[in-house]
Amino acid sequence: MRPLNHRIRDWTGQRVWLIGASSGIGAALATEALSAGARVALSARRTERLQAVADGHPQALVAPFDILDREAWHTRYNDILASFGSIDLIVFCAADYHPERSWEVDPERAAQLLAVNLGSVYTGLATVLPDMLARGSGGIAIVASVAGYLGLPNASVYGPSKAALINLAELLYVDLHPRGLSVYLINPGFVQTALTARNDFSMPALQTPQEAARAIRRGLDSGRFEIHFPRRFTMAMKVLRWLPYRLRFHLMSRLVNT
């Protein structure tokens, strides 16, 4: 069967804008792409962290800004265009997470998390889509999570934000694929980062950011729409999502109690 997206067969010269490149999966994916020969614009708030990722890679462009500043998106995008000429792939990897049960949710913190995880993606899309649509090419990669597959305890705001990203990626594909654009949905399981370090429970099939970056690159190389990993965990989550609610809730309650 033909892949749903354009395959990235050769990363040499690919122009990538990676949002959330200062740590975790974003930093590891930036290093993976740079090592493969891509030109990567690295964006996040922490300039010194971005400089560390760029170190030793002359084709890296450090482009720090606050993703919640709407005007800063356009300023930084124009700076990147001045250096790269265009963007072949934008990767939305910035995220925030607070483990909390539903009765522990703070409205202000919830609004901040939703602005980072979801609202910033809409601002970024409004920034890059006009040029991509005008030339009829380009790729959009959205890092969601298997936490968006179903309602999980401790992910009271994070999970819904990732579910929204899954929905967004699906509708973007339907809208944009006929116009020549690729849309990649990335759903990692547990990855060892500063965010998952906040969890106080056992995380099955925990992967390193480097392992996650390699899995993402394989998915992009293959042109897959959904890139989910590690499959021994994500497939179990998919099966759980397909179960009738009565059985799903029963199993989830037992897992929570455990």
UniProtKB/TrEMBL annotation:
GO terms for cellular component: membrane. Gene3D superfamilies: NAD(P)-binding Rossmann-like Domain. InterPro entries: NAD(P)-bd_dom_sf, SDR_fam. The keyword Oxidoreductase applies. Keywords: Oxidoreductase. GO terms for molecular function: oxidoreductase activity. Pfam families: adh_short (PF00106). Belongs to the short-chain dehydrogenases/reductases (SDR) family. This is SDR family NAD(P)-dependent oxidoreductase. It comes from Duganella guangzhouensis. The lineage of its organism: Bacteria, Pseudomonadati, Pseudomonadota, Betaproteobacteria, Burkholderiales.
